[in-house]
Amino acid sequence: MDVLVIGGTRFLGYHLVHRLLREGVHVTVFNRGIHGDDFEDRVERIVGDRKNYKKFYELFHRRRFDVVVDLIGYEPEDVEFAIKTFRGHVGQYIFISTGQVYLVTQNRRQPAREDDYYQPLIPCPPGEEGPYGYGVQKRACEDLLVEAYQFYHFPAVRFRCPVIHGPRDYTLRLYSYIKRIMDGGPVILPEGGDKPIRHVYVGDVVEAVLSVFQVEKTRGKVYNLASDEVMPLHQFIQLAARLLEKPLEVLEIPVSLMHEYEIPESISPFSGRWVSVLDPSLAGEEIGFRPTPVQQWLGDTIRWFVESYAGPDPDNYRYRPREQELAQWWRKMKHLD
Fold this sequence. Notes:
The chain is of the alpha/beta class. It is built from twelve helices and 13 strands. The longest helix has 24 residues, at 129-152.
């Protein structure tokens, strides 16, 4: 089998390529070559920028791949040129999308199901142009793939993912909480910790991708991926603290008060409005998706950050002294009550 992986080798792509190599698959990796990896000569490497659409087409339009996995299709032009490039000579085109496609619509159901996609868009919330635009653009990418399947059976399968966790996660969102738990100080959850958490493990995404390789019945379809368990954010953080074997103090503090101390809500990355909660039952029914229990993947991920991660602190950790100051004041006011 000949598989092309379009995208990074830092996180999801890294785990996917290693899994493919273990299966004896011939892997071609296409990316800008910015980040190193340990694939050595076991993969075929093609360095380039997919935004150079002319060059992208020239590189691939005469090659036949059994599967193309597109990890970095963010704008409709990316997908438009992928369709033009691979149409007629790809067995399966797998597109990694996002749960954010639901969050930019009027859908109110949580967890969101695949059919909840078909809702009118909400106006862009003030100051949220970045995440809103990301969801809208991903929808445009998906719509092109649906159209391509309907008109000429372009064999695309789409996966919608919430927050993805696992070793090598360069976003450091989970690490933001780990650092705060490990330093012994409080974890501040803006407005409270009742927000539901239903993320997904990187290894489960990889297994889902492999499960649809050349499976004809999945073409033209879309699947949500997520853990089975749903828990409130405060419970998720408490589980992390238990796995770290550290005491935990959670403070639920109003956002308005945080702003007085010039502390952004981003100190708690899973508190914001752009964290999706998805229902993965269709993937379970049709492709046998069986997610890893949260405690298991959370423990594996924490262990990697504690024992192996050697990079910088999360950017939001620079606010830690202000958090400590606010926490001290908050405890004092609560005591006076």
